[in-house]
Fold Copper acquisition factor BIM1-like domain-containing protein.
Amino acid sequence: MHISAVLLSLPALSFAHFHLLFPPVRGSFDAGSLDQYPCGGQNTVGDRTDFPISGGPIQIDNEHTESKIQVLLALGENPTGDDFVYVMLPTIYAQGPQEFCMGMVGAPAEANVTEGTKGTISVVTSGDSNGGLYQCADVTFVNTPLPEAEYNDNCKNATGIQVSSSNGNANGSSSATSPSSSSDGGAAASPTSTPGAASVNGLGPALAVAVGAMGIAALL
Ligand SMILES: [Cu+2]
């Protein structure tokens, strides 16, 4: 009875899934509820972090060796699931566990964000049998960019991280397919095709944005 309840809970507890490190994550970490949209079961707004409208790092510690990752945004004081209508970072596919920084992720133009706009960022990753895994950060958008040192402190990539383009939603809620390319040797995977998008240094525009500044330097 009591013992079997503990045993049943072990599979969920044995996976850390991923941790959002920057901007600072809302609430406490509960691996067992990380699959609850939109904030992994953390439904109370937390402390707000100033986040540059023009873009800042989204830093995670990923316990999975491969994930689809997407960054969503909701505006307002206390948004609910239906409010996460803006895409800050379209779905990418990242391989390699541990530190992964999505660099210069900013507010999308259509959100009309200005100095002082309050919002909540939801980082979505794949890897749960029910769909996505979610972590949120509550922010106040500001016009001021992060100082370089602070940016770099919050944007780090583990050795061997590879990124390629993807499609669909990271939680699998629409037709999602596996990336069509990969590479080895620690180099960034180049998408074989990115329709309608010019390639920047072999990476699609979203990918150039997706990999942190330090990561791009290391990968090119
Ligand atoms: Cu996991």
Observations:
- Residues 107 and 156 are 21 Å apart (CA to CA).
